[in-house]
């Protein structure tokens, strides 16, 4: 009711504005021959042809009973105490049965046999899933498979009569400015059609490792999640997934999973009930202008390898930390964002050509990809393992360079900074001078320097010698490979004083 009341006030205001405009127009006395301008072409035929393929997804699940709120206490004899007792006892869950929680979303049929696509977050945790069709038909749905990384779920219903299906289009052909149409179930208002344009492509909103959303200004609200974004040919080019809104309603910034990304995942879920993504076995970071300069690259491009998974595909192929991956499977790697998607979209066990930049030279390699899901399981098992402690080492000498107090990695320093056994070698940062170049790059005590200028270092003296060599070569910055106490590695460039 409040929504419609607000709408009425807005319509009333619009009517007053229109009347005022009419007075002005009359005063201007437009020529009788002036024809009204033609509005945009209608999309009624398009909407009518695809509407029946869009469904409303309703779910229900048992939620645990929340702890009861204690009954407020009023002064003895107060009339409020009787009110409190009556209100809280009436609303108390006497038998502690779980509450039934319901939610609404959208989806669309991609196969007339009863295959439906929606967002994973629409059905996540549901005990019951129902697909509500445009003609009023309600069918129970079963989950075939889901993918949490790009937020997709595939459902199956058993239709009792023919149902309408739509197909995925080529989202790569969608251009900024193209018209698009969204159909869904915003706020429970099923069959809602909105229209807009492609506002941007390849958006990264930090929702997952494979972000490349289509941005649109077609109105998308709560309940539109999982619904289709159509092009003007009636093909699905996106799955509406997220919005940016300080109010909870549409402000014209919505995001859809591209059809080309979704279709490959849907095929895997239909075939295997799970995803099977390619896995390279590297940790990567972006190539900044400073890093590019320190490596002798003319422009910042590719993906910098910060670490290699032991016994993973990259390790077996000879990829090393410090390599910059320039090409993967014959395609240029523009930046760090694109490489995970390129690898994930490549079939498991495929042997691909990879070109890396290593110490100024391009090195061709062949890598046989593994399966990401298996790699993640392996990493989870190894995370809890511990290697035997290292033999005691002599007390370190401390050397200063780049505003850092540096020392050898000893058991005492390992204990002091809680450095994990996975960091087996390197030079420990004992102190960082305030305002130094290293402090500007967020190097902190407890970090371990593994390489300087792509050369391994094991003692503080090694770092000093390496910096001197870089100075003689005319380098203004040094590229450092650094591990934090947890063993996570990254590259940082530091100005050579």
Automatic annotation (TrEMBL):
Residues at which substrate binds: 121, 151, 223-225
Region (Disordered): 378-397
SUPFAM superfamilies for the chain: PDZ domain-like, Trypsin-like serine proteases
Pfam family, one: PDZ_2
Primary location group: periplasm
Alphabetical keyword list: Hydrolase, Periplasm, Protease, Repeat, Serine protease, Signal, Stress response
Annotated EC: 3.4.21.107
GO biological process: proteolysis
Group of enzyme by EC: hydrolase
Residue numbers annotated as active site: 121 (charge relay system), 151 (charge relay system), 225 (charge relay system)
Xref: InterPro entries: PDZ, PDZ_sf, Pept_S1C_Do, Peptidase_S1_PA, Peptidase_S1C
Superkingdom in the source lineage: Bacteria
GO molecular function: serine-type endopeptidase activity
Location relative to the cell: Periplasm
Family: Belongs to the peptidase S1C family.
The name this protein goes by in its record: Probable periplasmic serine endoprotease DegP-like
């Amino acid at each position: 009711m409040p929504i419609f009341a607000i709408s009425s006030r807005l319509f009333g205001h619009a009517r007053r504005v229109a009347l005022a405009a009419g007075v002005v127009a009359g005063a201007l006395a437009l020529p009788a021959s002036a024809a009204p301008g033609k509005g945009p072409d209608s999309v009624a035929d398009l909407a009518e042809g695809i509407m029946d393929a869009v469904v409303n997804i309703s779910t229900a699940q048992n939620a645990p009973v929340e702890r009861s709120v204690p009954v407020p206490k009023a002064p003895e004899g107060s009339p409020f105490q009787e009110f409190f007792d009556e209100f809280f006892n009436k609303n108390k869950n006497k038998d502690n049965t779980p509450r039934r929680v319901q939610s609404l979303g959208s989806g669309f049929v991609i196969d007339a046999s009863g295959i439906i696509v929606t967002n994973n977050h629409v059905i996540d945790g549901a005990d019951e899933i129902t697909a509500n069709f445009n003609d009023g038909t309600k069918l129970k749905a079963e989950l075939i498979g889901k993918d949490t990384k790009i937020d997709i779920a595939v459902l199956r219903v058993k239709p009792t009569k023919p149902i309408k299906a739509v197909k995925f289009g080529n989202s790569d052909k969608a251009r900024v400015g193209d018209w698009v149409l969204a159909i869904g179930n915003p706020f429970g208002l099923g069959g809602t059609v909105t229209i807009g344009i492609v506002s941007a492509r390849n958006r990264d909103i930090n929702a997952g490792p494979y972000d490349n959303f289509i941005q649109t200004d077609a109105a998308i609200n709560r309940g539109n999640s999982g619904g289709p974004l159509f092009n003007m040919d009636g093909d699905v080019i996106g799955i509406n997934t997220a919005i940016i809104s300080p109010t909870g309603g549409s402000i014209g910034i919505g995001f859809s999973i591209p059809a080309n990304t979704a279709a490959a995942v849907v095929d895997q879920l239909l075939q295997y009930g799970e995803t099977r993504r390619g896995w390279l076995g590297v940790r990567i970071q972006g190539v900044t202008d400073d890093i590019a300069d320190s490596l002798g690259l003319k422009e910042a491009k590719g993906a910098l390898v910060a670490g290699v998974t032991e016994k993973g595909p990259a390790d077996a192929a000879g990829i090393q930390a410090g390599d910059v991956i320039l090409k993967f499977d014959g395609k240029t790697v523009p930046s760090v964002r694109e490489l995970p998607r390129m690898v994930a979209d490549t079939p498991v066990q495929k042997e691909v050509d990879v070109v890396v930049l290593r110490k100024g030279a391009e090195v061709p390699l062949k890598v046989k990809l593994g399966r990401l899901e298996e790699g993640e399981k392996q990493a989870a098992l190894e995370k809890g393992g511990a290697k035997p402690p290292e033999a005691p080492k002599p007390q370190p000498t401390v050397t200063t360079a780049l505003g850092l107090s540096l020392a050898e990695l000893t058991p005492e320093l390992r204990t002091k900074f809680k450095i994990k056994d996975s960091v087996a070698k390197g030079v420990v940062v004992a102190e960082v001078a305030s305002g130094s170049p290293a402090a500007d790059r967020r190097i902190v005590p407890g970090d371990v320097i593994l390489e300087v200028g792509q050369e391994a270092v094991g003692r503080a003296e090694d770092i000093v010698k390496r910096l001197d060599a870089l100075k003689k070569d005319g380098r203004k910055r040094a590229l450092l490979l650094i591990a934090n106490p947890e063993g996570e590695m990254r590259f940082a460039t530091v100005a050579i004083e």
